Amino acid sequence: MREIQVQQITDVVEKLCIEANQYLPEDVQCAIKNCRACEDWEIAQGVLDKIITNFEIAREEQVPICQDTGMACVFLEIGQDVHIVGGNLAEAVDEGVRRGYDKGYLRKSVVKDPVRRGNTGDNTPAMLYTEIVPGEQIKITVGPKGFGSENMSAIRMFKPSAGLQGIKDFILETVENAGPNPCPPMVVGVGIGGTFDKAALLAKKALMRPIDSSNEDPFYADLEKEMLEKINQLGIGPQGFGGKTTAIGLNIETLPTHIAGMPCAININCHVTRHKTEVI
Amino acid sequence: MEKHITLPLTKEVAETLHAGDTVYLTGTIYTSRDAGHKRMCEALARGEALPFDPTDATIYYVGPTPAKPGQVIGSAGPTTSGRMDAYAPTMMSVGARGMIGKGARLPEVVEAMKKYSGVYFGAIGGAGALLAKCIKRAELIAYEDLGAEALRKLYVEEMPLVVIIDSQGRNLYEEGRSAYLKEKQA
To answer: Could you say which of A98, A128, A145 is where a domain stops?
Structure first.
């Protein structure tokens, strides 16, 4: 048994909120640069150049890459031999978000009620996801999620007879429907299986996986490659102005599911696909 | 085509701009997004004046991050314009002409643009740090309680934009994509 003070969690969440918003992950930077090298449409090249300049300015001047500094999605993988002491875990995470968004000059984009609105003023509460895993450490990931892309996401409960083709069509339909709205080039997170809610969570987790990685199952690794290629034949292009680079990555995550169903969720992210992880 | 435009955006200037043009804007623009537009349209419905003169005005759909010490404004890229579609025709009916944002617009907005000679400019979504560089002055003018959504008056220099929809209703999202696909199939 290892004791971890909630204060330590607050400190890490604070730091990760700021860093995730200022530094684009290496894999995303590389993917954008690779796509720029392969892009042969003039207006698209210009857009990608500006996108690269933008994340470089953000890194050098320590300012947010994008003004939508997102809802703070916080993933905690908590070792089962950890005992959290010194306060309430959810409150500690929110305190980290509160401080990070204040000290990092990040935008406060959360309203306290979905219908009646009203800004909470400090970007809390965090969207908190906890998982109990073996070990005596806590892995903390902060993934600020912008809503221009979140709004273009979709979920569908397929009949099993829809098969692989149903999934493929749904991915293309969702990207087509998103068009220029989610700030393409986008990153596409696909969750297949589980239940209604688990499929959506898988899709979000797919966005947290490096985009230069592949699903461990060769069947889904091939599907990732195939669908990324098909998306990049749609012609939507960077910002929707036309071009090859509509998506810079596509990750698929799966779970077993019920004999009667085949849930599929697609979480869309923009080219500012941010996440930062630390283990304590 | 590359054009350098000084604001305000008159009808005459607006009508010379075409979908696909690269435009560098210089002058005064106003920021507003969902909550600000709702309030402005409610004020107009009550017969009240807007917090700024809408004649030939350009509105930037943006909610910036707070300015760090020494900064004019924080990161300031465009938000998705479609959420302002419910309000844009009303804003154009009282004289506003330019809109800066990103993403698709509804047919009724395009119709209003044709009627009032409006122009819809695209700024690069997600390039907030870069776009902040061309904002030289920022002043909060109304709705301070809305935080990031408060109304701001900005002075911009050579703000890099692309005309997405012009006053004739031509649309870069449709034309740019089909030109690319046609070229690839050829």
So the answer is: A145
**CB–CB contact B75 A67 (8 Å):** yes
**What is the per-residue pLDDT for B1?**
81
Query: Which pTM does this prediction carry?
Result: 0.95
- Based on the domain organization, do A70 and A187 belong to the same domain? no
Measured in whole angstroms, the distance separating CA A181 from the mean position of its chain's CA atoms is: 16
Give which of B23, B61, B75 to mutate to test A binding, by max A Cβ within 10 Å. Answer: B75
What's the pLDDT at A233?
A: 96
Helix (H) or strand (E) holding B90: helix B88-93
Q: Are B74 and A66 in contact (CB under 8 A)?
A: no
Residue B21 and residue B2 in contact, taking contact as beta carbons nearer than 8 Å: yes
User: pLDDT category, A179, cuts 50, 70, 90?
Assistant: very high
| Interface confidence (ipTM) of the complex | 0.93
**Fold adopted by B2-185:** fumarase (3.20.130)
Tokens of A71: 């809802």
pLDDT at residue number B126: 94
Report the amino acid identity of residue B146. Answer: L
